[in-house]
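Recap from last week: sequence in, structure out.
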Amino acid sequence: MNTFTIDTQTMHYVDIGEGPVLVLGHSYLWDNEMWAPQLEVLSLHYRCIVPDLWSHGRSDAAPQKTQNLQDYARDVLSLLDHLQIDSFSIIGLSVGGMWGAELALIAPERTKSLVLMDTFIGFEPEVMHAKYFAMLDTIAQVQHVPEPMIDVITPMFFARNAEQANPALVAKFREHLSSIKGQQAVDVTNIGRMVFGRRDTFDDVEQLTLPTLVVVGVQDMPRPPLEAQLMHDAIDGSQFFVVQDAGHICNLEQPAVVTEKLLSFMNDVHA
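Predicted structure tokens:
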């Protein structure tokens, strides 16, 4: 792991491989290790930069000036400037896709392509917005993720049969949720408010002309295929790919399928 400091706060990131640069953004409540199966293959052909989102993995809490996902996209751009990277492609899953779209909008001339996976760049639907903010308030107040809430949150990330198909993956995520305690729990909820209180970028994203791939797990509960279809329809010339037998973290539930699709797309972009 490498480090980069912004206003005294330290961001940890992975920098692996050589070649054209791919910037990968992980899901809320996960970290850079979420991309391990993809990095194993992609890093043989590309230089992969994977920051840990603020308050996730080994990264510190967000700097005071980082108030929303546009600000976070600028933080990632600062990292890329620090590494003297002029052009890059973005692969973002969930919140990674949300800030990834913001990064593409901030630096369109530097962004070669964009992959939006299990994400949504519109407003959070009102009912879910209220539900998520209530959960965040509870976690911040008690400074841990209560067991009943872990029972609700965990299945949201996976296909319906995940407990049987991939018990180790589900168990590891449950364990991770249980480990979020104290100030970290508060800091993580602050990031959650940025995620679920994000702005609507649909009108801006319609202006993008870069190669774009929209990917979604067919059983994704928080970010259902309908949302992915809306983004695909809004982004002219985008490709659309549905991952069978997968939920929100489709890259870990169907790693071979997802890796092959990402590699094929990037190879076309960089041909």
